[in-house]
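Table S2 (text version). Query chain:
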Amino acid sequence: MKAFEILSSIYPEEINFLHADTPFQFLVCVCLSAQTTDAAVMRVAPSLFSLYPDPASLSAADAEEVWAIIRPLGFWRTKAKNIIGLAHAVDEMGYIPSTIEELIKLPGVGRKTANCYVHHICGAPAVIVDTHFKRVAARLGYTSETDPDRVELDIKSRYPEEIWSRMSMVLNLHGRKYCFAKNPDCDHCPVASYCTSRKPS
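Corresponding structure-token output:
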């Protein structure tokens, strides 16, 4: 775990890639972030939430109007269907669940989204397996699994829950700063000597 310890000491205590005014808006943003960048989500979020700030308003939204707003994110038809369905479910329930098992029953909410919500909103231990975390965890030898759900469960079985959330955010940020999918910046990486996949100099 030396690489994680080094990275944890280097990166900020608070690491956030998505920002929202309410827990519901945060959950919607995480749903929208699938297969696109967080920065892209943050560019469309103000327009979306100025019209549909809460579950009641978004559940009643016209799908084509939502399409027009979130089109830059890609997969806008599926994402619009999901977030409108999510809003309807939350509006009917009157609350947002706080456990992964309950959250993944909601439209458009997979394990990554649920873990992200549990960590950022509920303050509970979570392993957030996005593309950056999965890549860095594999390169540092923290898991040999490739399926995201199996990566999550493998990490949870190997490491104490008190580091799950910090590990999630630190490895994610490292993947954005140095450990790129293509042409990782190994020459400047602070933990290159611990990496099982370091490219030759």
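Notes on Table S2: The radius of gyration is 18 Å. The mean pLDDT is 95.
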